[in-house]
Write a structure and sequence with these properties.
This protein is of the alpha/beta class and 303 residues long. The protein contains nine helices and eight strands. Helices cover 40% and strands 13% of the residues. It binds nicotinamide-adenine-dinucleotide. It comes from Streptomyces antimycoticus.
């Protein structure tokens, strides 16, 4: 297959279903050879028995592409490191990492167990950090050997990470953390030829099809199926290709036919006394600044 990823090798985590599957198929359709990772867990991260990664590999091969399955847990050192060795052993190189795997344990904060906190932090934050670290180690060695790569990493945040989402305190914190990780990785790794960008997608997958059933519903015959996960993948493919040279450390919201650059925290109204405030003075100043500031976007799930 030829396309904007011809000759490139991509790893996609959590690619057995949902958005990851769509990304893997779209990367293969543009010529990439793909390592399709998926541990095959339930919606809450609990163990399941099926192996969805191999099914997606079979789909890619049936369409004339090249792919191999990887069934490891991306939040472990072995799982993350073997993503890289699998790419190198199967295809001889690694160019693109799409960090996508994850699951939810939604509860209001007062009902949220420590286990639900830890599991969501682990799969999203550590599950982003470890594959990124191992891929970057490989790319840094390439750069030091005089073979500076055109390496690309796409991370997966969420509107919940950008604005917060009621009932998703653990998930929102993890997805906000992924933005911080993305910014630092982009700043640290540019010198090795590595670009790192984040997406905040929205699409109909098992993660959303029940909770947001109405928003996610497919249209009647013939209409544009805005919430199909396949709509998110073209930007991921482009960010994962050499064509995106110069784009790094950015965050894109992607949904249906819409791509939005998210503009991050920046200083708003400010006051400087040039000396220490008293608490009462600090409060008065804060209220004045708030009155002059923009109203924040609402947290998802509030009005
Ligand atoms: N669907 C949406 O609207 C939406 C919105 C914002 C963010 N996201 C994010 O997009 C990503 C993909 O979500 P999705 O909606 O396709 O969900 P999904 O449940 O359909 O797919 C996630 C996949 O990750 C796999 N996985 C989970 N833990 C793993 C691990 N430790 N190692 C390897 N694989 C593992 C699961 O088996 C599953 O196949 C997630 O990070 C999610 O938080 C989705």
């Amino acid at each position: 297959m030829t396309g904007i990823c011809s000759g490139r090798v991509a790893v996609v985590t959590g690619a057995g279903r949902g958005l990851g599957r769509a990304h893997a198929l779209a990367l293969a359709a543009e010529g990439a050879k793909v390592v399709v990772n998926d541990l095959g867990v339930g919606l809450d991260g609990a163990a399941e028995t099926d192996g969805p990664a191999q099914r997606v590999v079979d789909e890619i091969r049936a369409l004339g592409g090249e792919a191999v399955a990887h069934g490891g847990d991306i939040a472990t050192t072995d799982g993350a490191a073997s993503l890289v060795t699998t790419a190198l052993e199967a295809f001889g190189r690694l160019d693109t990492l799409v960090n996508n795997a994850g699951f939810l344990r939604d509860r209001m904060l007062v009902n949220l167990d420590e286990d639900d906190w830890d599991a969501v932090m682990r799969v999203h934050l550590k599950g982003h950090f470890l594959p990124l670290k191992h891929a970057a180690e490989h790319w840094r060695a390439e750069a030091k050997g005089g073979r500076t790569p055109q390496a690309r990493v796409v991370t997966t945040s969420s509107g919940a990470g950008l604005l917060g989402s009621v009932g998703q305190g653990n998930y929102s914190a993890a997805k906000a953390g992924i933005i911080g990780l993305t910014l630092v990785a982009a700043a640290e790794m540019g010198r090795y030829g590595i670009q790192v960008n984040a997406i905040a997608p929205a699409a109909r997958t098992r993660m959303t099809e029940h909770t947001f059933a109405e928003t996610m519903a497919a249209p009647g015959e013939g209409g544009f199926d805005a919430m199909a996960p396949e709509n998110v993948s073209p930007l991921v493919v482009w960010l994962g290709s050499a064509a995106s040279t110069g784009v790094t450390g950015r965050v894109f919201e992607v949904e249906g036919g819409r791509i939005t650059v998210m503009e991050g925290w920046r200083p708003g109204p400010t006051a400087d006394k040039g000396a220490r405030w008293s608490p009462a003075e600090a409060g008065g100043a804060a209220l004045g600044l708030l009155a002059a500031s923009e109203t924040p976007r609402p947290v998802y799930g509030t009005r």
